[in-house]
Amino acid sequence: MQHLSKKFPLEIQKMSKEETRSYFQDKTTTIFGPPGTGKTHTLLSIVEKHLEEGYRPEEIGYFAYTKKAANEAIDRATSKFDYEEKDFEWFRTLHSMAFKQLNLSTQSVMKDRHYKALGKLLQIKEFLNTNSQIEDNGQSMQKNPFMRIIELARNNMVNIDVQWRKSEDHVEGGFPELERIYETYIDYKIEHELYDFNDMLLELVNEGLVPSLPVIIIDEAQDLSMLQWYAVILLAKSTKHIYIAGDDDQAIFKWAGAIPEMLMRTPGNKKVLNQSFRIPQRVYDVAESVANKIKIRVKKEWEPTAETGEVMHYASIEYVPFDKDGEYYVLARTKYVLQKVEEYFKREGIIYNRFNKNKSISEKVCYAINCWNKLVRGEEISLGGAKNMYKYISSGPEHIEKGYKTWDKALEDDIVVTYTNLFENHGLRVPQELLWHEALNLINEEVVMYIRKCERRGQDINAIPKIKILTIHGSKGGEADNVVLLSELSRKSYTSLLKNGDDERRVFYTGITRTKKNLFLVRSSNDYEYSEMFLRQNFRLNREEYAN
Which of 249, 44, 256 is nearest to 137 (CA)? Predict the structure, then answer.
């Protein structure tokens, strides 16, 4: 673990630009994939071509940005080709490649308990597990400002004093506190012989331990950090064919150290996938208007689908129609903007999914309501359902008799029970004719009001919500029939727009291009707004459609 105490630059960073370019010369194809143009399909076609040429699956490296994307590539490959999952051993992320090449075990990897212990040691609240963040999202973001600087320094492969001078964060404690946290963090990992994901990549790059593979495919290259690019450079050195795919217009992780300029400058052949199978014509017009304002980019000629699509402008989310067919994404630049959306949905009784994780109504609450409703109808429920339901009923002579909320562990959850059985044997005293919100009296009052509003709207509380609220960054790689895009910015994002508009334009370009059919653009409630996506022609079209 000597790499942990090394200072930058590493030996590989002293390599000349000419030598670096020579690793890519005459064997590189850069594939630019605008939104919905079938980039993954194209990359798997390249895999198919090389398999037909006689290369074995284990000779092909397909390096995705996230674990989910790598698994999706494996799933598609195994269904398309006559091979098993284990045959595609180099279909993985760059961090996973490092884990494999260093012969590490899971015991060597930092886990939640280690981050918790470190947080206590450093007196940092919410010290996050960056390993799980990188697996899920491809990048990490610590809440502590000092740890953000440390992570960014490692991604950029610079010493912490260099990153500190570049940082715009002015935090209490200054550079001495940054040094204290950094040294404690390093010492803890060395003492316990633990790696985080970036440690793995740093050691791999420092030791030059990449596999020698004749075919290399790099996906989502616009989001790679300098550390990841050095891994790619080493892979390129010994390969015969390298394909680098991405879209610089969708480079939305520069804040985490991504360098889209590396994708733009790769030598060799360039190919643009020129037909979108997602973006309708009116949405394309908005997307192109935003993209053409990005100053540093590769210009790409591509076509929308034959569908017209719809782009509508709204003064507030209250006016957006949520009755269109298909799934909805509600997207915003930052989470705090989405808090206002959640408040509106709860006032109106609209069910939604939060950040691809939780439904707005707890699954356990739904389960308890379903069980009670079954009992009212005279139906059976499982004992497991009854145990969960009892958590939402208070103890007492009119609810559940004292002592009956603790269950005999010998009773299996799949035993079937009725209201009569629960009344006679398990202390249930709530009258069978009561409605769920009267019977389940421990459910929070605000939650009860929200669910009853949803029911009055005729919404099925058990259905998968058709509305997802996400940050634009969280929607990356996804698509929906309808996208509601909020233009409101935080003061920091608005300052970024004024200072260097490219970063914010890329973010909103990514949000705009998540839709397959309809795009609903919502104005900001304050002066901080991304206004460039509100095209004058759409105001005119909206007025004509309303008139008709």
Answer: 256
Higher pLDDT residue, 485 or 140?
Answer: 485
For the whole model, what pTM was predicted? 0.91
Alpha-carbon gap, residue 92 to 69, rounded angstroms? 9
**Token couple for 317:** 């989310």
DSSP class per residue in 139-187: S---SSHHHHHHHHHHHHT--HHHHHHH-----TTHHHHHHHHHHHHHH
User: What average pLDDT does this structure show over 468-490?
Assistant: 95
pLDDT at 523: 96
Sorted by sequence, the CB contacts under 8 Å of residue 299 that are 6+ apart come out as none
Rounded distance between C-alpha atoms, residue 5 and residue 10, angstroms:
12
Cβ neighbors of 537 (< 8 A, separation 6 or more) are 285
Integer Cα distance of 35 and 479 in angstroms:
10
What pLDDT, in 10s, does the model give residues 290-335? Answer: 999 999 999 999 999 999 999 999 999 999 999 999 999 999 999 9
Can you tell me the distance from the alpha carbon of 188 to that of 159, in angstroms, rounded to the nearest whole number? 19
Are the beta carbons of 254 and 510 closer than 8 angstroms? no
CB 508 within 8 A of CB 466: no
Q: Residue 236 is inside which H or E element, if any?
A: helix 226-238
Residues β-bridged to residue 215? 60, 241
Transcribe 14-30 into DSSP letters.
GS-HHHHHHHHTTTEEE
Distance CA 201, CA 194 (A): 13
The model's pLDDT over 95-137, given as tens digits with 9 standing for 90+, comes to 999 999 999 999 999 988 898 888 888 887 766 666 565 655 6
The two beta strands, 328-332 and 467-471, are: parallel
Do residues 512 and 533 make contact, with C-beta atoms less than 8 angstroms apart?
yes
